[in-house]
Amino acid sequence: MTDALSRLLETRDWLLADGATGTNLFNMGLSSGDAPELWNVDEPEKIRTLYRGAVEAGSDIFLTNTFGGNASRLKLHAAEGRVRELNRVAAELGREVADKADHPVVVAGSVGPTGEIMEPMGSLTYAGAVEMFHEQAEGLKEGGADVLWVETISAPEEYKAAGEAAKLAGMPWCGTMSFDTAGRTMMGVTSANMAEMVEKLPYPPLAFGANCGVGASDLLRTVLGFSAAGVERPIIAKGNAGIPKYVDGHIHYDGTPELMADYAVLARDCGATIIGGCCGTTPEHLRAMREALETRPRGPRPSLDQITESLGGFSSASDGTGDEEPPARTRRRRRG
Description:
alpha/beta, two-stranded antiparallel sheet, eight-stranded parallel sheet, globular
């Protein structure tokens, strides 16, 4: 393999990804309900600042500001005709920042869910999903992204469609799902289900894993599930910085840099190779995570008790891999 991410994976036993997109852009003045992707053109210096924040904190990988950059999501802002432009510019800004960094940095083109429900429960066809993801992938490729980064997916068919779009674009890809319903995705996928699915894909990702979800403890329990499946493909852990709380009219994540440092080391010891943060994770958190990964020795695989002792309790008793029926869930999340 000659892509930038594979080259890094060949020489390192862990890589630090970035943190939140939404949280950091809201801190720069983005209003709730606005499309962050429009800032790629309207506020390019703020997007450079977003990217530089991750790079200067020690990230080896950062994601482009394109989580909602597909036609279905952009249609909500009357921008469905700007998919290619907004993705291309996001990747160009990322390429500019990465090429000036003092260490090798991978520009990962963020590809979030379409926001639609796949057939037969919804109206989105598999072919329609592939088409939307392919359009986005071509824009990211044109702008210089090194790899596509599919994230926060709930439905297996949508995950597969994104992988097919990556193949059509001739791009390597990584893909994470969000496990936030008692150890399952919104569509009922467990860690074991995902590990099995990934290995059967005709064009599998370079790395796979989990992002977002509930708290860091839940995410690491899912990572342990991936490790237990015996998959040798690198595992991604991108957990939220604690639990969201509503404070003074804003969503605040209670995870401190110290907690995220503990999370990063535990994620590595659980079997993750690519470790980052999701909602609530700022450059301050990333710096603490980098220092912890560099200075704390690798340890044995932690027990569930060790995880909860360090990071807090699980949101549910189950990790989703038992026989119980998962509770219904109708919520979808924008990566924060």
